[in-house]
Amino acid sequence: MRHPSSFAAALLFATSCTVDVSTDGVGGANSEAITVTVGPLDGVVSVGVGGALEPGAGGTSSAGAGGTSAAARQFAYIETNDAKGNAVIGFERSADGSLQAMRAGPKKTGGAGLSFVDPKRDGPLDADQPLALSADGKFLFAVNAGSDTVAVLRVEADGSLMDVAGSPFPSNGRNPMSLGVRGDTLYVVNKAIDGTEPPNLSVFAVTSSGQLLSVDGTYALPLGTSPTSAYVVPGRDLVLSAGYFDGSRAFDPRQIDSLTADEKGGLRPVAGSPWPLPEDTSMILPSPIPVARSVTTHPIESVLYVGWPTREQIGVYTFDLNGALTHVGTTHTAGGGVGALVVEEQGHWLYALDPSSASVSTFDLFDPTFPIQKDILQLKRPGGVEFVGTDGQPTLTSQPYQLSFDEEESHLYVLSQRETTSPEEPFGNWLHTLVVLGGGGLAEPADPIDLGEIGVSPSARPQGLVIVPRAMPVP
What is the CATH number of the domain that holds 239? Predict the structure, then answer.
């Protein structure tokens, strides 16, 4: 998603949540320029090399890369998040939008992921943007949530990834799960999922060679919250951190913190922060606990969208020049609990993942402060037999958690995670390719990529999805 630079600096939004392959190198052919597209959400990063791609419908495949000219290459990356050894897997995007796993295989990150927790809780692993690209598109950042580090990989012109000297770097907290980039500053969201210490948003300066240097200004969140994303919005020097409540801890009603970023990236709270969620209007009985998970903004207007999964709603806020929030509306979602959110670059359509129903909802933003649901797409292969989740309700074995557009916004990629620990249902880690239709609708013409076929363990919960729409020369 692209945002106009209508203000002086950049706005960072971070949301909060509480719950719970290994080879070297990702290769491809040479090219002269790299196009990187970073979306506001997570773990999948798309990197384009060369000129613009031809838009068009297409399915997905886990075969080796090929079928794309050197002048129109684009790459996508996801993170395995495997507790036995984390890695980044590369895919090449074909001209029809389909993805093929790159032949070189996974690239080790030098750390461990964080798969299932014991006892299993959905919240601790909910996060947006576990992968992120540097502002100049040269470096890919990847969280190692199970070893408290952040890996930095250099993105080569052919799509391959190389370790930066000193990588991985300490995250300055426990369980880093999300990243945000603002110029040469990297924000790392440390979730601290076991609840024994406060989570935080740590601040790092990124050097020209990709090293991470700790910067003063880390913001500590209260014990009992757990951040899910660090979301940077061009145009403002603000940070929003939304709180996802974990029922195993003491409840903190504060759900959204608004923070300002100084010239070095340090964070301090805005007057009036934090903001609680408004009164519940979901009509769900008993009234659900207030939870804020994912955030995104309108690309033109100063409007913020916040997913409230337990209420099955999207909260709509405006924000002023100082970073103060005003709740202006609430939209119900037909798909169920709200996951990741993204708005297309013209600001016409908002897309929301619905993990509990394994679907994607489309909302009309004719009035940006009043989203109207227009469509819902059921993803293919949501899983086999349902299992009973932590809330005692039947739960799909595969649920979508992250999404991102390609550069042309002709395709939307969705990463689904396997939700069950049952060995009888080893499937559920999928990478979907959706075609964007006229009127904002979506279609999934082909089956998703089965990540298990390319080395992702059934016990892992892969994550990540990002895209950056500008061409950058690679030295």
Answer: 2.130.10.10
Contacts of 428 (CB under 8 A, 6+ apart): 383, 397, 398, 416, 417, 418, 419, 420, 458
Nearest 5°: phi and psi at 316?
-115, 130
Tokens of 398: 């595969």
Helix, coil or strand: residue 277: coil
Whole-angstrom distance, CA of residue 432 vs CA of residue 291: 27
- For the chain, what is the largest distance between any 2 Cα atoms, rounded to a whole number of angstroms? 58
Report yes or no on 321 lying in a domain. yes
Cα end-to-end span (Å), the chain:
26
Q: pLDDT above 70 covers what percent of the chain?
A: 75
Q: What are phi and psi of 173, to 5 degrees?
A: 180, -175
Is the residue at 3 inside a domain?
no
4 domain residue, yes or no: no
CB atoms within 10 A of CB 18: 28
- Rounded Cα distance between 57 and 297, Å, is 27
Counting the structural domains of the chain, the total is 1
Let me know if residue 1 belongs to a domain: no
Which tokens sit at 459? 């016990």
Task: Quote the Cα angle for 206-207-212, to 5°.
Answer: 50
**Gap between the Cα atoms of 175 and 157, Å rounded:** 31
| pLDDT of amino acid 386 | 62
What distances in angstroms separate CA 393 from CA 18, 113, 390, 425, one per listed residue? 19, 28, 7, 18
- Residue 55: CB atoms within 10 A of its CB come to 16
Tally of CB atoms within 10 A around 112: 18
**443-465 tens-digit pLDDT:** 999 999 999 999 999 889 999 97
Q: Give the three-state DSSP class for 57.
A: coil
Paired strand residues for 405: 412
Distance, CA of 319 to CA of 297 (rounded, Å): 10
Question: Which residue carries 């580090």 as its tokens?
Answer: 149
Q: Which helix (DSSP H) or strand (DSSP E) does residue 256 occupy? A: strand 254-261
Per-residue pLDDT band for 251 (boundaries 50, 70, 90) equals low
Tell me the two tokens of residue 343. 């708005």
CA–CA separation, 409 vs 56, rounded Å?
10
Only one residue has tokens 């340090």, namely: 266
For residue 136, the one-letter residue type is D
Q: Please state the φ and ψ torsions of residue 317, each to the nearest 5 degrees.
A: -130, 155
DSSP-based helix, strand, coil % in the chain, nearest 5:
5, 45, 55
Range of the domain at 78: 9-473
pLDDT in tens, 420-438: 777 777 888 999 999 999 8
Q: Among 36-40, 191-195, 370-374, 423-427, which stretch is predicted with the lowest mean pLDDT?
A: 36-40
Q: Given the structure tokens 């934090």, which residue do they identify?
A: 274
Rounded to whole angstroms, the Cα distance separating 435 from 6 reads 31
